[in-house]
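To start, an entry.
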Amino acid sequence: MPQPTTRPIGHPGYSETLPREPESAATARKLVRVACAVWGLDDVAEEGALIMTELVANAVQHARRDTIRVGIDRTEAGRVRVGVVDFSKTRPVRKTPGPEDEGGRGLALVDELAETWGTDPLPWGKRVWAELEGKR
């Protein structure tokens, strides 16, 4: 498994470039759990891992290139932001799936678990992120 890069200045954070494939969700979840443990924010690790799974799944389905970039940042002492950067400029849309639909619930789950979430446009694509507030 590749080693994540850390940021030498600014807010603490971890990021890693991963293949755009469903199996990358497991690596991204592990990165969230490790970062949260390092920062003493274990109380948001599982929610963060679940959100990251949904964000990776969306990027795998909708992005255009072979890689995605996942990141976990501690934006404040008790706040974690998880995100995925991909090379598609199409913004995600929260859907209201019917009871028989097999998909379309990911962003509803993100909306339920996260304090806030959003999309930042980038010159080459977008970053979809979600923030969690720890109990610290």
Notes: The first strand starts at residue 5 and ends at 6. The CA atoms of residues 119 and 128 lie 4 Å apart. Strands lie at 5-6, 13-19, 67-76, 79-86, 116-122, 125-133.
